[in-house]
Amino acid sequence: MHEHSSSGHDSQPQAGANTGPADAKATRPVTLVVPGMCSDHCSLLISTSLKRLPGVGEIRMDMANQSLTVETDPAMVTTEALREAVEKAGYEVASIIPEEAVAEAEELRLRLTIPGMGSDHCAGIVSQSVRRLPGIRELQTDIANTLLTVELEPGAGVDAQDVKKAVEKAGYDVAGMQIEGGGGEASGNRLRFTIPGMGSDHCAGLVSTSVRRLPGIRELQTDIANHWLTVELESGAGVDEQAVRQAVEKAGYEVTQVEDLAAGSDAGEPEAIEEAYLRQAWRRLWIAAIPTTLIMVLMAVHMFWRPIPGYLAIVVVLAFPVVFLAGGRATHRSARRSLLNRTANMDVLISMGSAPPYFIGLVGFVYPMTSFVEMAATIMTFHQLGRYLETRAKGRASQAIRKLVTLGAKTATILRAEQEVEIPVRELRAGDIMVVRPGAKIPTDGEIVEGVSHIDEAIATGESVPVEKGPGEQVLGATINKEGLLQVRATRVGKDTFLAQVIRLVQEAQGSKVPIQEFADRVTSYFVPAVIVVALASFTIWLLFAETLRPILYWGAAFLPWVDPELPPLLVAILAGIAVLVIACPCALGLATPTAIMVGSGMGADRGVLIRSGEAIQTLKDIKIIVLDKTGTITRGEPALTDVLPTADFDEADLLRAAAGVEAGSEHPLGQAIVKGARERGLEVPKVEEFKAITAAGVQGRIDGRIVRVGGRRLLTEAAIDPSALEEALARLESEGKTAMLVAIEDRAAGVIAVSDTLKEDSVAAVAALKEMGIRPVMITGDNERTARSVAAQVGIDEVLAGVLPEGKVDAVRRLQERHGPTVAMVGDGINDAPALKQANVGIAIGAGADVAIEAADVTLVRGELSKVVEAVALSRATFRKIVQNLFWAWFYNLAAVPIAALGLLHPMIGVIAMTTSSLSVIGNSLLLKRTRLKA
Questions:
Q1: Does 629 qualify as catalytic in the annotation?
Q2: Are the CB atoms for 843 and 856 separated by under 8 Å?
Q3: Contact 800/789 with Cβ under 8 angstroms?
Q4: Do residues 18 and 55 touch, judged by C-beta distance below 8 A?
Q5: Of the candidates 187, 203, 183, which has an alpha carbon nearest to the alpha carbon of residue 195?
Q6: If we measure between CA atoms, which residue out of 673, 869, 639, 678 comes closest to residue 759?
Q7: Could you give the 3-state DSSP secondary structure of residue 612?
Q8: Which of 321, 591, 692, 923 is the most exposed place for a label (fewest CB within 10 A)?
Q9: pLDDT higher at 461 or 116
Q10: Using CB atoms within 10 A of its CB, is residue 410 exposed (0-12), middle (13-18) or buried (19+)?
Q11: pLDDT for res 257
Q12: DSSP string, 684-753
């Protein structure tokens, strides 16, 4: 529970009132959830009423969660007395919870899949409805994945079903719900029953009614498209799979399959729900399209060829399932819920644009007038067409998540008692030894314990060339073993794997908003009510002043074939009002930002550029200063052999072979760099004898019978060897920031070998590209000034901050921000540089594979290449351009179309087509982002 300060009149008893129990140890805190308590005035009324009771002590108010905690003496006051006192004050108590129950309660986190929540406007309506519940600690909407995530206060008296009902009150259906915490995962079993005969809402209702009669049904969901019934059972409630099966059979249906949805086993469920929603939209479209097509044919015959006896009765019957069943029922239900919830979504406009024309058309049975039934059916059919096309297009925009989910292996072969056993990936545990054959996916992150192979890591790094790996090296789940048999020890499983982190990061990005969207959201929240007002005003004005406004119709009829200037005032008023309703498109405004972010974040994931949030997209495009950490960002972060300079008496191969032979006996990183460099040049490293490491001087040993010394000046002078012949080369190499080592063979100076932290292959080109973008690079490093300047000169960086310790990098970034404002980005390894990454306006973690510190930065670059920073900036600029374009065209469409409709120049059937086209154009423009070339 949060602690809340209480005002004086809450904590101090009134004069003459019972001061509460004398013995503080005897008191018991009780929490009351009071949904109507929303102001200081409310809390004063409630506390005054409570303090009249004997045994009531301190009262602590929690306005945010609409609850209060009362210190009581159980011997003097009961919980029912507390309830009655609150009710006397004029408020209702939703629940009463003893404090010990609150302390023991776990935080409850819900993830609800809401297929109809397809825009920011819809998300705002859902959020507004849910936030009215008490105890909502945190609420997030993810339009890309149609998810609502809600975190509930422990003991707030609100559960998963309350949240679901709040969503439904807003006019939206919940297709799936996951419960985390509060016993949600461990306290019950989730079973999915396949029921082939359950093919309609009526069937689903019969099944649900029968099953809900069982005790211990925590949650129940029906999926008609897939013929699924998903049930979550309370543990210890005495109900099992067989009881549910029997309940289904009692309802008259047969169960053909039962699946146990273990924790984590239904990771792909949101994607299955999306596919089911698409199939449902397709089915509704055809159910509406067939009768509507027949109506259009009959109307053409009736109007242009010969009258059809009973025409009105025929079209009324044909239009009824279109307008009120099929998709119409869901539309009207959503509109009704939305209005009852004191909000207005897109379905309100469609419902008002289709149902009234249908009923007006019925007047034709008693009074001769133009029929509007055909228009009602057409509007609803085009609405269903728009829903289907929008769902399909959004699926294409958000395919990045589905692609990532399908990348992982479904099964794994592990060794148990020296026997190979195939198990589902979800059953893998850290430490299991996996057997990975050539061509197979590696099931999860791990470490190779046996075997050598080339690993295709394209899905993680974007690198098309397979990487050779052997024992002791790390591999990532979902990468492909190209050759050779491997044994891999699992190190990360489930949600801890690299792939799972990437999926989560992309989901977060797709569900986030950019700051520019905040203004659009505020305006859009008033859009639908404003449209309704305009529609009513249009109807009223045309009805009262039709003759005055008729010249407008004559003017429009000159170039708009659907405008009839001779229509009676009532007909013109109806057409104008309905046209305003169906032409307005808040969905286009709501889709403008999330669809662009969906596509942009998906493109980034494909290229190994993981952008964490929409805010990072908007900020990154404006970056003017970019701070680059030297080691591991500009350079490789590990020493490599760079120079081999022999004297005249020795050749390069002989010098390097001798030095590598001695260094092979050393574990020092510089020595290992020499050994690796020799092998890369095709030299055989000889075996060393009489190896000796000399502290702070170097190493020596016998190679092919000759004494070889590798180290500094001191090592040679102590052996009475004159190093003067090597001084010039030594000084030059050190001036270049390299670590140079002298080599002596027998008693002669043989040459100089240098190692250095070498530049990454793309560093020079990346720095040049950043400059072309108008971004000034600044290098920061803990190295000395000479080494730092040398590296900076090689890559073309003019400003260098050298000798900066890790703790000083935050101050360095802050000073740059003070000089240049909020336009500073920081690129580092994401671990040691984490504080500086957080301080920067945009933190960019650069690394490779599972070593990437995803939590440290706003942007994570999977591959350790500086060129990916250029791609990240280019992607942010391209994505933001699409967002601005989408918002412009969506606003332009609505600002232009609504007045045209209000003037009576737009037929409603043309309007609903235009409305659908508007939403699709926004999605289509976002999809064009995929064609963008991410270059400076």
A1: yes
A2: yes
A3: yes
A4: yes
A5: 203
A6: 639
A7: coil
A8: 692
A9: 116
A10: exposed
A11: 72
A12: PPPPPEEEEEETTTEEEEEETTEEEEEE-HHHHHHTT---GGGHHHHHHHHHTT-EEEEEEETTEEEEEE
Please name the residues in contact with 811: beta carbons below 8 A apart, sequence gap of 6 or more: none
Strand partners for 549: none
**Three-state SS string across 103-137, please?**
HHCCCEEEEEECCCCCCHHHHHHHHHHHCCCCCEE
| Angle in degrees, 0-180, between the axes of helices 569-583 and 527-557, rounded to the nearest 10 | 130
Give the model's confidence band at 586: pLDDT under 50 very low, under 70 low, under 90 confident, else very high: low
Q: Which of 236, 208, 235, 221 is nearest to 266 (CA)?
A: 221
Using one digit for the tens of pLDDT, what is the confidence trace for 621-667? 888 889 888 877 788 777 888 889 998 888 888 899 999 999 888 77
Q: What is the DSSP letter of 365?
A: G
**Whether residue 527 has pLDDT greater than 60:** yes
Q: What's the predicted TM-score (pTM) here? A: 0.55
Residues in the chain: 936
| Cα distance between residue 59 and residue 7, in whole Å | 9
d(C-alpha 740, C-alpha 732), whole Å:
10
In the Cβ-directed half-sphere of 617, how many Cα atoms lie within 13 Å? Answer: 36
Closest CA to 448 of 430, 462, 436, 464: 436
Mean of all residue pLDDT scores within the chain: 75
Query: Is residue 100's pLDDT more than 70?
Result: no
Residue type, 779: M
Displacement of CA 523 from its chain's centroid (Å): 24
Measure the CA–CA gap between 286 and 464, rounded to whole angstroms.
44
Q: What is the pLDDT of residues 680-730, one digit of tens each?
A: 888 888 988 888 888 767 888 998 889 999 988 888 888 888 888 888 888
pLDDT digits (tens, 9 = 90+) for 138-193: 888 776 667 788 888 766 667 777 888 888 887 787 766 666 654 433 345 678 78
What is the Cα–Cα distance from 136 to 129, expressed in whole angstroms?
Answer: 11
Query: What one-letter code names the amino acid at 848?
Result: A
909-933 burial code (b ≥16 CB/10 A, e <16): bbbbbbbbbbbbbbbebbbebeebe
Are 592 and 863 in contact by the 8 Å Cβ rule? The answer is no
C-alpha span between 277 and 297 (Å, rounded):
30
Return the ∠ at Cα 16 (arms to 12 and 18), rounded to 5°.
65
What is the DSSP track for 156-198?
SS--HHHHHHHHHHTT----EEEEESTTTTTSEEEEEEE-TT-
**Secondary structure letter of residue 633 according to DSSP:** I
Task: Tell me the C-alpha distance between 843 and 174, whole Å.
Answer: 36
The 10s digit of each residue's pLDDT in 815-870 is 888 888 778 888 877 555 667 777 888 888 776 533 444 455 678 777 777 888 88
Q: By the 8 A CB rule, do 920 and 389 touch?
A: yes
Q: What distances in angstroms separate CA 619 from CA 614, 640, 822, one per listed residue? A: 9, 37, 9
**Domains delineated in the chain:** 8-104 (3.30.70.100), 108-272 (3.30.70.100), 275-392 (no CATH), 411-492 (2.70.150.10), 609-634+761-874 (3.40.50.1000), 639-759 (3.40.1110.10)
Tokens encoding 508: 């977060």
Q: State how far the Cα of 106 lies from the Cα of 91, in Å rounded to an integer.
A: 28
Lowest-pLDDT range of 430-439, 454-463, 684-693: 454-463
Q: Which of 10, 120, 445, 629 is catalytic?
A: 629
pLDDT given for residue 183 in this prediction = 42
Q: Read off the tokens for 911.
A: 């309007």
Strands 859-861 and 842-846, by their bridges, are parallel
pLDDT score recorded for residue 321 = 86
CA 43 to chain centre: 39
Q: Where are the alpha helices (DSSP H) in 610-668?
A: 614-620, 652-663
